[in-house]
Design goal:
Elements lengths: L7 E6 L14 H15 L4 E6 L2 H11 L4 H25 L4 E5 L8 E2 L2 H9 L3 E5 L9 H11 L4 E6 L20 E3 H6 L7 H9 L4 E5 L5 H6 L6 E4 L1
Parallel strand pairs: 1-2, 1-6, 2-5, 3-4, 3-5, 6-8, 7-9
Antiparallel strand pairs: 8-9
Length: 238
């Protein structure tokens, strides 16, 4: 059996990915499929950290948040990511994966705080580390949290899981002639105005020479194929 192409990776999951076909919330079947993919990768000895978004939960309260102070709304979003992280960690426990949830905001009665040396220790011990609450600061997205945590733990790559199987020349849902890039440089993506991540996250990955792989989390076996170095998704590199 061939060896994994990566030893340590940072997986970025959007909150929306947990919804499945539901309008908001967590779809049990969807989270179980994701956990099965993670278990397959963990069994290969790959050190895996996860940053998760909160859009699936915040979407349910978004109408009531209209006109709300931006910082307050962002803190609500951070708490939504904690809820998702707890659900993901619990689902992993049910299949025998040892996971640790670490929050960027202090709620120690619920989850332990993010401490970089402790996170590194957990990864080295073979535990899956789930980073919650984004960066702990308003005005920053969970994409930025993924770029930041990926840099902090010396991940070899950020795996951005979406509902689309890569980066395209245009929106493939709107343009039938859109084609997928197998790989593209950071500078080319900027020049072509391709929305891979938000600008802050993208700039941080570029500056740290941290490649990004964009792939579809709903495509069966895609995560493992990436880990094994097979052709899957789009690689964004220096």
């Amino acid at each position: 059996m061939s060896k994994p192409a990566y030893k340590r990776v940072l997986l970025k999951l959007s909150g929306e990915a947990l919804m499945g076909d539901d309008p908001y919330g967590i779809n049990r079947g969807t989270i179980e499929r994701m956990v099965a993919d993670v278990a397959e990768v963990a069994s290969l000895g790959v050190e895996l950290a996860i940053v998760i978004g909160g859009g699936n939960i915040f979407r349910g309260v978004a109408p009531g948040a209209q006109g709300m102070d931006r910082a307050t709304a962002d803190y609500m979003g951070m708490l939504a990511t904690v809820m998702n992280a707890l659900a993901l960690g619990d689902a992993m426990r049910h299949v025998g994966i040892v996971a640790r949830v670490m929050s960027a905001i202090a709620i120690e009665q619920v989850v332990e705080p993010y401490v970089r040396p402790k996170a590194l220790q957990y990864l080295e011990e073979g535990k899956v580390v789930i980073f919650a609450a984004g960066t702990g600061n308003p005005f920053f997205t969970t994409d930025t949290a993924a770029a930041l945590r990926g840099s902090e733990i010396s991940a070899e790559i950020v795996l951005k899981a979406t509902k689309v199987d890569g980066v395209y020349t245009a929106d493939p849902k709107k343009d039938p002639n859109a084609t997928r890039f197998d790989s593209i440089t950071f500078d080319e993506a900027i020049a072509k105005h391709l929305q891979v991540m938000d600008a802050t996250a993208f700039a941080l990955c570029r500056d740290q020479k941290l490649p990004i792989k964009v792939f579809s989390i709903i495509k069966p076996g895609a995560l493992k194929r990436i880990i094994m170095g097979e052709d899957e998704g789009t690689l964004v590199h220096v």
